[in-house]
Amino acid sequence: WVKNAPLEDSDKIYHFTAMACTLNEPEEGVAPTDARNRPDQRLMENQNYPAANGMKVKLEEAQRARRRARETRIAAEGPSAKYEPKWFVKRECEITGEEIWRFTDEYWQCKQSQSWDRCPVLYLEDEQDEDAT
Asked: What whole-number distance in Å separates Cα of residue 57 and Cα of residue 40?
């Protein structure tokens, strides 16, 4: 392994490597819940820090509201209303016997067919455009 030379002006991008800079690049066809779709991230990358901070607050408030609604539903309906992950199932590890979360591969089927109806709405389209300037 050999360390690559830092990028030009790397001090302006938190000393990220070239590879680290590509990790948050938008990708077509990913789940609408993919973190690369976060409107606050895009605003921050465009150096619109006040709008990014405002958007982050909106997203966090919406997340808290969803959690409270889920907790209320669980209290009313019981454990059957508990949140279930979309792409993972709880299983016993064949080797250790411990409880683990196993990826179901269903994500790739949904990506192939672009069928995202099982995903919750996390980032609203109008939020993404609202503070984009």
From this structure: 9
Is the distance from CB of 74 to CB of 81 less than 8 angstroms? yes
Other beta carbons less than 10 A from residue 38's beta carbon: 20
Q: By the 8 A CB rule, do 17 and 7 touch?
A: yes
* One-letter-per-residue 3-state SS of 40-81: HHHHHHCCCHHHHHHHHHHHHHHHHHHHHHHHHHHHHHCHHH
Does this model's pTM top 0.90? no
Q: 3-state class of 7 per DSSP?
A: coil
Which candidate, 52, 67, 72, places its Cα nearest to that of 120? 67
d(CA 124, CA 39): 9
The separation between CA 15 and the C-alpha centre of its own chain, rounded to angstroms, equals 23
Instruction: Go through the chain and tell me how many residues it has.
Output: 133
Q: Tell me phi and psi for residue 102, to 5 degrees.
A: -110, 135
102-128 pLDDT per residue, tens:
999 999 999 999 999 999 999 875 554
